Amino acid sequence: MDVQSIKRNFGIIGNDPQLNHAIEIATQVAMTDLTVLITGESGTGKDVIPKIIHQNSARKHGQYFAINCGAIPEGTIDSELFGHEKGSFTGAVADRKGYFEIADKGTLFLDEVGELPLPTQARLLRVLENGEYIRVGGSKVMKTDVRVVAATNVNLPEAIEKGKFREDLYYRLNTIPIHIPALRERQGDIYLLFRKFATDFAEKSHSTAISLTPEAEKLLESYRWDGNIRQLKNITDQISIIEKERVITAEVLEKYLPNRISTSLVLLPRDESTEGLSERDILYRVLFDMKKDIAELRNTVNHLMNGQQPEQNYTVASTVALVGDTVVSRVSEDEPEDIEQGCMEILSNEENAMPKTESLSLMQIEKEMIIKALDKYKGHRKEAAKELGISERTLYRKIKEYQLES
After folding, report:
1. Pairing between β-strand 147-152 and β-strand 176-179 as defined by DSSP bridges
2. CA atoms in the 13 A half-sphere facing the CB of 76
3. What is the Cα–Cα distance from 317 to 217, expressed in whole angstroms?
4. Per-residue pLDDT tens for 355-397?
5. pTM for the predicted model, two decimal places
6. Where does residue 158 rank: exposed (0-12), middle (13-18), buried (19+ CB within 10 A)?
7. Measured between alpha carbons, how far is 170 from 166 in angstroms, rounded to an integer?
């Protein structure tokens, strides 16, 4: 069966090459018994891939179960998957079959597999390797013939490094990897999905489907969609219910897009130091770091122009900086001439791109970031300096400069 037929049968909307590739892999692997690991953000529609695999496999007449591993309490997950013997724990008043026993000759879809407790991961690994398992509270080794398809929105390699996921299980699950792209990576499909959801809602409610002005359509396609397809459907339904006018303008649409951040802007990096911060705070952090970089660059250029070695071995990052509306590429530190030329280019761009009023804005941003850090750590300067990525001495000087001493 070709990709277009698969999409029609399973109600899949979109023509994105990444999506089509995922469907192609699913159909190719369906006739085998290889384990499949589906990755992608929450709300991208990962649950449709296991159905495609099952329905196009030799097991299609067998049982198909989808289990949300993250929704089952840790104390009962083993019982759900592998069953239990009577009296094995409080409340076990009778023997119970688990999914691996019920779904024999069929397919199990383990959604959110990254949420499994470590002991359960060990049991799952045994089943995948030799088809054997033991009921909770039992001693008899039982056999099963189940095809396992797993999915996760967790970065499993990172979970392995943190000791939260077994490396051997990861490689056993990841025999055939299938990645589902985020909605923002399928920009050409966003409006198609919106029209589908708007039409479906109109048919169910016997009303006129909403449509978008050209400006609203552009806004829809530029939005980040952190909640992916699920978020798009919810917002389409909201607008369909609330708005009386059926032609939606950009101004109206914007009211329904929380914390609107266009994908055309710089995608701000997230790591442990930015976890829990809003996008606005992360932007402040980036601008704050840029201001430090520019000061260091000035110092480097001054020394190089005077024929002196810089005071410190300034390493220019491999990323790019956004100065005003100008993207300034950073340079390598391999050769002094490259450093000097790169520094001069960056300073030149900075002077052209940042008027005095913008410099004042950066100072205000820096001041706000310092205030935020001091408030967060209740005035503890050492922790605040660490948060800002500067020395205590620099922080002390900035506190005096901005008259923040209480």
Report:
1. unpaired
2. 12
3. 37
4. 545 455 667 777 888 888 888 888 888 888 877 878 777 888 8
5. 0.64
6. exposed
7. 6
